[in-house]
Task: inverse folding
C-alpha cells in the first residue's frame, strides 16, 4: 500500500476555498491546535499568545485582506475561531520550536540536468508528530493561478508551485530582528499566487513582514533565486554555474549579521556543503529519479540531508520540475518514501 499524503482540492473565491479546506482538514486542524496548546513556551499562556498574535493579525488584514478572508473561511469550515487559526500561522511567536526545523534545498538547471530542465529538490524537516497533519492542497482561487502545495493541517503552506510555472521551497532561518508584522507563512501564500518571478520577489521583500524564510523561488526559464531574508533585509542569491543549495544559515556575508545564534549552525553548514558536493559530483546527470536518491543521503547521520533526527526528522520531500508543471512528493524519510507524481495543467 502506498503511504501518501491526503489531497485536498478546493475552488472558488478566497472565502469559498478556505471554507472547503477547513471542512476537509478539520481533524488535522483540531489535532494541530491541541498539540500547540500542549507545547506552549514555559512563560506563556494560550491567552497571552493570542494577545501577541493580534498585532500580527492587524498587519495581515491591512496588507493581505484576501488571504485573511481565506483564513476566515478555514476557521469557519473547521469550526474554530479565526484567532486560533491565525496563531498557528505565527511561527514567529513559536520561534524556539520553529528553530527545531531543518530543511535542505538543491536546485539545478541547464547543463547540470540531464535534459536541461529546471529541477528543485527539498527535504522538509519538522518534529515527527507533524507528519500526521500533512495535506496536499490543490486549489484554484478565482483570478489567481492554480497551485499545488504541501501544507501542515491545511493552514500554512510549506512548499509548492503554480500553473504560471512559479515554484517555491525554502529554509528556516534563525534571525534576530523579528518584530510584529505579516507572518512569513502568510507571505508564502502570496508568493505562490504570483504570475511571474518579479512579483514573487516583491512579496519576499514585503516591508511589513515580521520575519522571512530563505525563499527559494524559480520559474520555467530556469531563473532560480534564494531570497535570503530577515524581517528588515534580504539578499537575492542567484544560481551560479547552474546549481544552487541552501540549508538553515545565512550564506551571504551581508545577511550574516542577522544570525541569532551562530553556535548552533554546524549541522546546517555540514548539510549545505554536502548538498553542494552531491550537485557537483552528479553535474550533467541530474534527473528527478536521481534527486530522489540524493535527498536520501545519510552523510552525517542522523542529522543528515535525509534527517532521522535528534528532535527533528524529514517528514516529506519534494522534487519540482518547474517547466513541466510536475512534482514528486514522498511522505516520511526520503530513504523510505515512495515518491508520487503530481501535475498541474496550464
Result:
Amino acid at each position: 500500500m502506498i503511504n501518501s499524503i491526503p489531497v485536498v482540492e478546493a475552488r472558488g473565491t478566497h472565502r469559498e476555498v478556505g471554507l472547503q479546506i477547513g471542512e476537509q482538514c478539520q481533524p488535522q486542524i483540531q489535532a494541530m491546535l491541541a498539540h500547540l496548546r500542549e507545547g506552549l513556551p514555559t512563560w506563556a499562556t494560550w491567552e497571552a499568545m493570542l494577545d501577541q498574535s493580534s498585532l500580527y493579525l492587524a498587519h495581515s488584514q491591512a496588507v493581505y485582506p484576501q488571504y485573511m478572508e481565506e483564513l476566515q473561511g478555514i476557521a469557519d469550515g473547521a469550526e474554530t475561531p479565526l484567532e486560533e487559526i491565525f496563531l498557528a500561522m505565527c511561527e514567529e511567536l513559536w520561534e524556539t520550536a520553529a528553530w527545531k526545523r531543518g530543511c535542505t534545498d538543491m536546485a539545478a538547471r541547464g547543463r547540470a540536468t540531464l535534459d536541461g530542465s529546471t529541477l528543485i529538490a527539498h527535504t522538509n524537516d519538522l518534529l515527527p508528530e507533524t507528519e500526521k497533519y500533512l495535506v496536499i492542497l490543490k486549489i484554484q482561487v478565482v483570478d489567481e493561478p492554480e497551485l499545488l502545495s504541501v501544507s501542515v493541517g491545511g493552514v500554512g503552506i510549506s512548499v509548492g508551485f503554480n500553473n504560471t510555472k512559479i515554484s517555491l521551497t525554502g529554509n528556516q532561518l534563525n534571525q534576530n530582528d523579528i518584530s510584529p508584522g505579516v507572518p512569513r507563512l502568510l507571505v508564502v501564500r502570496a508568493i505562490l499566487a504570483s504570475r511571474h518571478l518579479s512579483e514573487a520577489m516583491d512579496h519576499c521583500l514585503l516591508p511589513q513582514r515580521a520575519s522571512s524564510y530563505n525563499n527559494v523561488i524559480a520559474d520555467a526559464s530556469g531563473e532560480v533565486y534564494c531570497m535570503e531574508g530577515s524581517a528588515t533585509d534580504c539578499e537575492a542569491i542567484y544560481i551560479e554555474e547552474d546549481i544552487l543549495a541552501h540549508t538553515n544559515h545565512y550564506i551571504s556575508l551581508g545577511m550574516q549579521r542577522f544570525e541569532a545564534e551562530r553556535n548552533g549552525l554546524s549541522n546546517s553548514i555540514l548539510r549545505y556543503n554536502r548538498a553542494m558536493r552531491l550537485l557537483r559530483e552528479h553535474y550533467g546527470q541530474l534527473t528527478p529519479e536521481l534527486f530522489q536518491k540524493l535527498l536520501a543521503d545519510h552523510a552525517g547521520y542522523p542529522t543528515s540531508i535525509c534527517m532521522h533526527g535528534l528532535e527533528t526528522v524529514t517528514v516529506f520531500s519534494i522534487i519540482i520540475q518547474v517547466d513541466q508543471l510536475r512534482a514528486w512528493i514522498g511522505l516520511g524519510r526520503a530513504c523510505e518514501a515512495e515518491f508520487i507524481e503530481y501535475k498541474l495543467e496550464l
The longest strand covers residues 313-321.
